[in-house]
């Protein structure tokens, strides 16, 4: 699927306040092109129904559905003739939700919709959409309207209010997600608890790969000892947490090398490495060639 790629800088101040929100009305003659983006997109269906074309597959969506699109995922909508479709689009970068706030919350079940659900396989994500029932839809919609009001008015401390409102939205979604999950899964065991913790941490790494991440930071955020952290990653993923982080970053680096004209030093910084020499050595060890050679070889094989 050929897709337009939207850059974060087209919508938001990526350094100071990486956030954007807007209401859209669509019909059969007015739908966005197939596209991907660098940011996270949270979509709430205010009213109407449509087909969501996500990564080449079609899923029906309707009033009060909520879903998250990750960076790099391609999607669009199809709307039947005569139908109208209203959504609220909330765009942001993971850095909007600061570590200090996450620590205060405790990155546990309260944020599973942000750190676990978006990284499940496509079928599980979109065949089991969250649809807000009577108890949640009006509260959720009210929060989104509050965020739009603050965003447009830019009154004192508006960015702080929006951050808090977004976290409240994600906690509500995580609560619903875990309620649905508990209805269909077996009771927790120590093994499943460790698996969930690894999924949460892996989601955090995937969301924040471009930030400075250390073992002490992860232990502080997830209230876990370094020894236990590496033990459960070895058990669940067969690798240490540092190896998993390197893998996420190198995968992203390969993508940036092919999709941009950035120099290797800039790609290193974009995926979280301050030392370009270390990045190049790591890339060579994991990929089998230097970043520059990887780009050159890939272009040669395509052409």
TrEMBL record:
The keyword Transcription applies. Gene3D superfamilies: Homeodomain-like (1.10.10.60), Jelly Rolls (2.60.120.10). Pfam families: AraC_binding (PF02311), HTH_18 (PF12833). Residues 199-297 form the HTH araC/xylS-type domain. Transmembrane segments: none annotated. One of its GO terms (molecular function) is sequence-specific DNA binding. Keywords: DNA-binding, Transcription, Transcription regulation. PANTHER family: ARAC-FAMILY TRANSCRIPTIONAL REGULATOR, HTH-TYPE TRANSCRIPTIONAL ACTIVATOR RHAS. This is AraC family transcriptional regulator.
């Amino acid at each position: 699927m050929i897709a337009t790629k939207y850059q974060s800088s087209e919508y938001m101040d990526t350094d100071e306040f990486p956030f954007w929100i807007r209401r859209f009305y669509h019909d059969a003659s007015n739908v966005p092109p197939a596209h991907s983006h660098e940011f996270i997109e949270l979509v709430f269906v205010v009213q109407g129904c449509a087909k969501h074309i996500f990564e080449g597959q079609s899923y029906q969506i309707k009033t009060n559905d909520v879903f998250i699109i990750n960076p790099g995922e391609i999607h669009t909508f199809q709307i039947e003739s005569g139908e109208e479709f209203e959504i609220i689009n909330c765009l942001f970068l993971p850095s909007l939700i600061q570590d200090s706030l996450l620590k205060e919350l405790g990155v546990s079940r309260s944020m599973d919709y942000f750190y676990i659900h978006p990284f499940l396989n496509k079928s599980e994500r979109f065949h089991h959409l969250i649809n807000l029932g009577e108890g949640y839809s009006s509260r959720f919609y009210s929060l989104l309207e509050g965020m739009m009001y603050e965003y447009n008015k830019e009154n004192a401390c508006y960015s702080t209010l929006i951050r808090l409102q977004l976290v409240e939205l994600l906690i509500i979604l995580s609560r619903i997600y875990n309620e649905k999950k508990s209805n269909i899964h077996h009771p927790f065991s120590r093994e499943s608890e460790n698996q969930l913790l690894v999924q949460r941490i892996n989601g955090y790494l995937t969301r924040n790969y471009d930030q400075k991440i250390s073992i002490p930071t992860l232990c502080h955020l997830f209230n876990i000892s370094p020894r236990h952290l590496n033990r459960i990653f070895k058990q669940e993923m067969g690798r240490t947490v540092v190896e998993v982080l390197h893998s996420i970053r190198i995968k992203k680096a390969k993508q940036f090398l092919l999709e941009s004209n950035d120099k290797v030093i800039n790609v290193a910084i974009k995926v979280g490495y301050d030392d370009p020499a270390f990045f190049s050595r790591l890339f060579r060890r994991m990929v089998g060639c230097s970043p520059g050679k990887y780009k050159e070889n890939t272009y040669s094989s395509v052409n």
